[in-house]
Amino acid sequence: MTGKVYLIGAGPGDPGLFTLRGVACLREADVVVYDYLANPRLLSYAKPDAELIYVGKKGGNADAAIQAEIDRLLIEKALAGKVVARLKGGDPFIFGRGGEEGEELFRAGIPFEVVPGITSAIAVPAYAGIPLTHRDYASTVAILTGHEDPSKQTSLIAWEKVATGIGTLVFLMGCGNLQSIVDKLLGHGRAKDTPAAVMHWGTKPEQETVVGTLDTIVGLAQMRGIGPPAVLVVGDVVRLRERLNWFERRPLFGKRILVTRTREQAGRFAELLEGQGAEVVEIPLIEIAPPTSWKPVDQAIERLETYKWIIFTSTNGVEEFFRRLQALRLDARRLGAARVCAIGSATAGSLERYNIIPDVVPAEFRAEGVIEALKPYDVQGAKILLPRAEVARDLLPVELEQRGATVDVVPVYRTVKSPTAGDILKPLLQDRKIDLVTFTSSSTVTNFVEALAQEDLKAICEGVRVACIGPITKETAERVGLTVDIMPQQYTIPTFASAIAEYFAP
């Protein structure tokens, strides 16, 4: 039975510009065939068992897949009954060879669908603060290839017409031919003082923009070492960049920030940092694993009705506790009349997803805050359940027991170190490619140090800023010899991201 092929535009690079239709198609696909310019983060939308095939064609790469092989691959997979997502940078029908691939699929009798993407011709100038049209500067725009098929006998671009007949010219894939493009424009009458801009890796955190005129842009681009992928814009609209350059003015633009949280929890934090312009490098230093034994948890669940209080100290504790309840075919009703305390708004939010509204959320999001928040309550003789990590501070249970409570501490999860983190982490720090390291728990600090075993911590972290989510994590970092530069007033992920942005703001 013949499958189907989706020709999907991956957009210009920023994964936030990917379309909802593209997401739906990736989730349906059995096979994903993706390009060099398609952001790898989009692959997270694919099914866990989807086959991922890289066919990126990159300038100067002798091993790059040729187009005929890509066409053959799409046809072969579809004829095997697979749903294929062909993920292409930008828009598939704007210099993306989507039309050629569609023709091949048509000839093979394979059904296909085109999912447009936001083309870099529009998005990249917008992220550089350059509108392609403006009532005071340009009423016409043309999108041209800067890399025509070298087998053509003559150019299909009417240089004598576009050079002076169009207000704004946008050239895609023109970096390698920049001098030739400029020569043709000047040779056909475009003024040498016409503003021009070259944008490298547009819409991504590493975006770099060079502004000049047709007379100077080649030299400026060479001086800055600008290479592909790049977009060239020629026209008076380039003058507006000085006022409209919003993307590169964000506080974390150009900063490469290491996020060490678990892979499952890193997403929201990464989004907040990227929203402020950062390039996020995710290296999970910890992984969440089941406790050594479920027996203490299961015994506590059997007698849940005997507890007066249940205290959750983290979102992980909430998720793993309720996951165990579900595994035992039980639900939130099992908590009965027990009062619930949650350390932090994020933990409270996790509880609310299970329709549990905490009775107490301390103002200070750590054990000391819980102790203070429970002072108005009589816990003498009360049984308290504390589902938490296998290794954690004993301050809370000790203080509550001193007040006369009986505290059952049951591990619902444990954190284990990533076995491969060090192999990725060391080269990044050695090559000075990290501006800031973020820690969201003491275990991330401990595993960071262990991942850098045999390294001089002070030397390898020279020039790297350190951010910790709260005082306990900060104390752990300082104990191992790190200098902590950033800590938020409130110990939540949103305030943590805000504190980082404020620190780097000009």
From TrEMBL:
Keywords: Methyltransferase, Porphyrin biosynthesis, S-adenosyl-L-methionine, Transferase. CDD domains: HemD (cd06578), SUMT (cd11642). GO terms for molecular function: uroporphyrin-III C-methyltransferase activity; uroporphyrinogen-III synthase activity. One of its GO terms (biological process) is methylation. Residues 4-217 form the Tetrapyrrole methylase domain. The keyword Endoplasmic reticulum does not apply. Its EC number is 2.1.1.107. Residues 268-494 form the Tetrapyrrole biosynthesis uroporphyrinogen III synthase domain. Belongs to the precorrin methyltransferase family. This is uroporphyrinogen-III C-methyltransferase. The lineage of its organism: Bacteria, Candidatus Methylomirabilota, Candidatus Methylomirabilia, Candidatus Methylomirabilales, Candidatus Methylomirabilaceae.
